[in-house]
DNA sequence: GAATTCCCGACTAAATTAGTCAAGTATGAA
DNA sequence: TTCATACTTGACTAATTTAGTCGGGAATTC
């Protein structure tokens, strides 16, 4: 049960962007250096973040990224979702109605894990980028 | 952010043991079949569970495992810990006082992830094996 | 002594992660 | 124009982790 670098880096970078980029575009190299993250890896992540509408890009000299939405309106849970690091606590495919294995009944532990997932999602949904920037996290 | 099979299988098996094994030893083959889990994998897990004092074993014919502690007194969080699937949300080594990278200050996202970890631990600590068996989970 | 069951360590195939690399496109400044 | 900067994109890969398997052994009961 561990958090990977994808999600971690994405949030770190977006926090940095919200924190230091006051309106004007911030280059990825700058973010990468400040947070000491591999830049070519970040490029990958920001590609997805742009496609999903979290950031906007300006190319060329003095270009960079800006937040496409208000920092108050971006939930941490959304970032993880967008980047491809979803919360997967249950094993059963929630689309099909079949449980863990073969049987169409849910296994004994299903509600346990589902509850855990809900708990995590609720926590991460309740915190915005702005909250992290301004250290409003308990 | 996904739950692996180690933790999942361990909890499934222990729930099965608490549910079907009324006092008397339950063979691993029986548990494995009922939950359709790979038996040789389960053996590995139960080795650790015994060493950590969650179950007791009886060898030979009609042998098997029994719970070594009351089902009410076994928290899900303990199982995951024992089996080697801990909750790792932060990246910094909590023993050393150094943060994510080099600097001894905590990174901006540290409290966010620490909070998530605390949330998860709290949830899993608040639920016992007995709770799962008797479906007292929201 | 034969069947059953736990005990234990070593090993491995497959999947995932955590990136790198190379080539291209757009923009602004000198 | 030309150059430097910076985003864009897909392909590729090394390392790690996961999810097991396998083989042999030891204890216990019938
Ligand atoms: S986790 Fe959903 S049925 Fe087992
Ligand atoms: S996660 Fe602890 S300092 Fe970054």
Can you put this structure into words, describing what you see?
- By secondary structure, chain A is mainly alpha-helical.
- In chain A, 48% of the residues lie in helices and 6% in strands.
- A two-stranded antiparallel ribbon of chain A has the order 1-2.
- In chain A, strand 1 and strand 2 form a beta hairpin.
- The model of chain A has no long low-confidence stretch (mean pLDDT 94).
- At the A-B interface, helix 1 and helix 5 of A face helix 1 and helix 5 of B.
- One FE2/S2 (inorganic) cluster binds next to helix 5 of chain B.
Lay out the secondary structure:
The structure is a homodimer of 138-residue chains.
Chain A: H1 5-20, H2 28-35, H3 39-51, E1 55-58, E2 64-67, H4 76-83, H5 110-125, H6 129-133
Antiparallel strand pairs in A: 1-2
Helix pairs in contact in A: 1-2, 1-4
Bound molecules: FE2/S2 (inorganic) cluster (2 copies).
The first copy, chain A, binds a DNA duplex (30 and 30 nucleotides) through helix 3.
Oligomer: homodimer
**Corresponding CATH superfamily of chain A:** Winged helix-like DNA-binding domain superfamily/Winged helix DNA-binding domain
Strand order of the biggest β-sheet of chain A: 1-2
Total of DSSP H or I helical runs spanning 4+ residues of chain A: 6
Q: Give the tally of β-strands of chain A.
A: 2
Runs of chain A in which pLDDT lies below 50 for 5 or more consecutive residues are none
Q: Which ligands accompany this protein?
A: FE2/S2 (inorganic) cluster
From the spread of the alpha carbons, the general shape of chain A counts as elongated
């Amino acid at each position: 049960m561990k958090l990977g670098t994808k999600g971690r880096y994405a949030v770190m970078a977006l926090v940095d962007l919200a924190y230091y980029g006051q309106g004007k575009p911030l280059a990825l190299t700058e973010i990468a250096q400040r947070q000491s993250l591999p830049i070519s890896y970040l490029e990958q992540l920001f590609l997805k973040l742009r496609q999903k509408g979290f950031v906007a890009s300006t190319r060329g000299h003095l270009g960079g990224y800006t937040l496409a939405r208000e920092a108050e309106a971006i939930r941490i849970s959304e970032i993880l979702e967008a980047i491809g690091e979803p919360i997967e606590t249950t094993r059963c495919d929630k689309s099909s109605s079949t449980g863990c294995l073969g049987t169409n009944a849910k296994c004994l532990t299903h509600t346990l894990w589902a509850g855990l997932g809900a708990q995590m999602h609720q926590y991460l949904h309740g915190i915005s980028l702005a909250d992290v920037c301004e250290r409003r996290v308990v």
